[in-house]
Design brief:
Blueprint lengths: L3 E8 L2 E7 L3 H21 L2
Antiparallel strand pairs: 1-2
Length: 46
């Protein structure tokens, strides 16, 4: 899989994630992974 999360930086409520993709399949995988990550943090918010 060529899709990877390269960089994550957190400042208060802001998270920056930089990714690379070499194909449409990679974009789909990244999109799904970011959706799961969003759900994870949504449930952790007060």
């Amino acid at each position: 899989m060529a899709a990877r999360i390269l960089f994550v930086r957190r400042r208060e409520d802001f998270v920056r994630i930089t990714t690379t993709a070499s194909s449409i399949a990679d974009v789909e995988q990244i999109t799904k992974a970011l959706g799961r990550l969003n759900e994870h943090f949504r449930h952790k918010m007060p």
